[in-house]
Design a protein that fits this description.
By secondary structure, the protein is mainly alpha-helical. It contains three helices and no strands. This is RIIa domain-containing protein 1.
Length: about 70
């Protein structure tokens, strides 16, 4: 039997319309803040690109261990 992830039966009415609107605005504001941060720190893209390149070249079995520098 497949393991459940907890997302099988989302209850779209669990949040009131006011809560849904607040959540939507929170998500928008978070994306804007993240975009501003990434634009002001181009080194983040360089670090992530280098890490991804190393992962694809070395194809470690345990990416978490690889990222921690233990493999």
């Amino acid at each position: 039997m497949a393991q459940k992830s907890g997302l099988e039966a989302l209850d779209i009415d669990a949040l009131s319309s006011e809560q849904q609107e607040k959540l939507k605005q929170f998500k928008i504001n978070t994306r804007i803040a993240n975009e501003k941060y990434l634009r002001s720190h181009p080194e983040v893209e360089m670090v992530l690109g280098e890490f991804l390149r190393e992962v694809l070249l070395k194809r470690p079995g345990d990416i978490r261990e690889f990222a921690a520098g233990k493999s």
